[in-house]
Automatic annotation (TrEMBL):
UniProt source species: Sagittula marina
Protein name, per record: Branched-chain amino acid transport system permease protein
Keyword Ubl conjugation part of the UniProt annotation: no
CDD domains: TM_PBP1_LivH_like
Gene Ontology molecular function: transmembrane transporter activity
Locations listed in the record: Cell membrane
GO biological process annotation, one example: amino acid transport
PANTHER family: ABC TRANSPORTER ATP-BINDING PROTEIN, BRANCHED-CHAIN AMINO ACID TRANSPORT SYSTEM PERMEASE PROTEIN LIVH
Length: 297
């Protein structure tokens, strides 16, 4: 039964890590911005979801519709906040050194974290109803929440949808062209500014969706974005900054490393993901899927 528990917990945690990290790696891959504010977008998604569900349940509406409310609240919050920050702040800084962009997004993280406290206060929010709605199923004698399996399905849908959009739609292909060479793409008539705005909004939406999906499983409290950005950074470093397949593989490696430690050696659980990151970086300093880039002077 321990093996089954490791497989299920590793799968669920890997899916959650992918949802958390994929927006971060998308933004870096297209815009070359290591977005430290990603953790704040995750927290905003969780808080908006908790508030929306609170209003929904207090109105006495059908419980099944709460899942639609979760999705809509995350999409709206992520898209609005992402577009607003891109237009007001980041658009004025394109072309700056990557270190400056890291400092700017770190400042945004601090500002948004305080804005969350000012808006929702410091009390915890609990919206456990969606988590308990589907009950659990048994694998042998091991009960497992159906909601956790739905999170796995959400991660799969997000990954496939992102792949299809990048490889089978005109906008996605233009985005790939911008990744290859933004100057040449601009010279060929691609509106790079619009591509950047859309990319940042989608990355923000993905972070908000991850926060909304997590909200029913945790107490939504100030500071939940801090751990998330650290874990997301570890995942994308393992897979390679800017690589979507790398985010998948990095999430799987990190998720199963943690699951194995939780069930076999709990005292090492806190270090498992970072140990994997250290080993990968020792072998491939740019991550598993990233290509080494020539240094520009």
């Amino acid at each position: 039964m321990k093996l089954v528990a490791i497989l299920l917990d590793g799968l669920n945690y890997s899916a959650w890590l992918f949802l958390v990290a994929v927006g971060l790696t998308l933004i870096y891959g297209v815009m070359r911005i290591l977005n430290i504010a990603h953790g704040a977008f995750y927290a905003i998604g969780a808080y908006v979801c908790a508030s929306a569900l609170g209003l929904y349940y207090s109105a006495g509406l059908p419980e099944a519709g709460a899942f639609l409310m979760m999705g809509l609240s995350a999409l709206v919050a992520g898209f609005v906040v992402g577009l607003l920050i891109e237009r007001v702040v980041l658009r004025k800084l394109y072309g700056q050194d990557e270190v400056i962009m890291v400092l700017v997004t770190y400042a945004l993280f601090l500002i948004l974290s305080d804005a969350v406290k000012l808006t929702w206060g410091v009390e915890s929010y609990y919206v456990f109803q969606p988590y308990a709605y589907f009950g659990y199923i048994e694998f042998g004698n091991l009960p497992y929440q159906v909601y956790d399996l739905l999170v796995v399905g959400l991660a799969i849908v997000a990954g496939i949808g992102l792949w299809y959009w990048l490889n089978r739609t005109r906008t996605g292909i233009l985005m790939t062209a911008v990744v290859a060479d933004r100057e040449v793409a601009a010279a060929m008539g691609v509106n790079v500014t619009r591509i950047f705005a859309l990319t940042f909004a989608i990355g923000t939406v993905l972070a908000a969706v991850a926060g909304a999906a997590t909200a029913p499983k945790i107490a939504v409290t100030p500071g939940i974005g801090v751990e998330v950005i650290i874990l997301a950074f570890a995942v994308v470093v393992i897979g390679g900054l800017g690589s979507i397949p790398g985010a998948v593989v990095g999430a799987i490696f990190a998720g199963y490393a943690r699951a194995i430690c939780v069930h076999v050696a709990p005292q090492f659980e806190l270090f498992a993901i970072y140990a994997v990151m250290a080993v990968v970086l020792a072998i491939r300093p740019h991550g598993l899927f990233a290509r080494a880039e020539g240094r520009k002077i």
